[in-house]
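Let's practice the habit of predicting before peeking. Look at the sequence and jot down your guess about where helices and strands might fall. Then scroll down.
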Amino acid sequence: MSFFSGHSDRATALDQHRLPGFFLRFPPLISLVWTWNRLFHLRSWYLLSLWKKMLGKLEPNELVIDLGCGEGQYLWYAQKRFPHLRYCGVDRNAQSIALNKRYARMQRGAKVNFFAQDLERAALPSPAGLILCASVLHYVADDLTMLKKAFAALRPGGSLVLYLPVRGRSVLPWYRHLKKHFPHYDQSQGLQRVYDPEQLHQDLESLGFGVEQDQSTYRTLGILSNELQFCGITLAQHGPWISRGLMFLLTPLWMAMCLLLAGLDVLLPFGDGNGRLYLLRKPH
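Done guessing? Here is the structure:
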């Protein structure tokens, strides 16, 4: 029996990435979550650079779709910097959509719409100049249907920015141990698959996409940064009181170490990693 097994079935809102109810009462507080994610989620460092670049190429009033928009961190990042575009966010989480709608009512003149739908069955507006699908596809039961819908919604020459995890390689044995014995996000969201990048590349081309960028992310140091974050947060929530106290005291050092490892992972881009960032184009 695991030392931590007595806590293994106690999932928290944080494990499931569910926000406390006060965010619905005070929607502007969501910006704190966006800031945390942009700082400590390495994928955001890669995504935002490409996302901003592609948004800047669109004509006024073009449609941008965020498939699996969650709490809207990428959509609202875009809207505040490119307000001349139209935006649509789709997510299966009704709470996230409700939060986005409340936040939208506070943004005067924002051209945004949000819909709570399963992504495989969503009726996407079209034609879109740009679609984002960030860390979502591996939770979708029928991923090829979702990709076909995205392809159909794009205008000729439109782009899909796609980010997803691949391979599933881990570094720390105690990360695997904690993930086995504690609730976590992949478990609560229903992880469907881990992609093989070579096979995925072929599937994307078979659907008609032109692959203009295929970038590896989350190499060894990035994996280590992510696993340290997971271990620290898990022990702070579920561990015995000694580990909770230690994590509280060590939080500044622990998070600084995670940031350092993530930064080194970006500066030393050697080898294949656990993440893949694609820029896909629909042919004219």
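How did you do? The longest helix spans residues 241-267.
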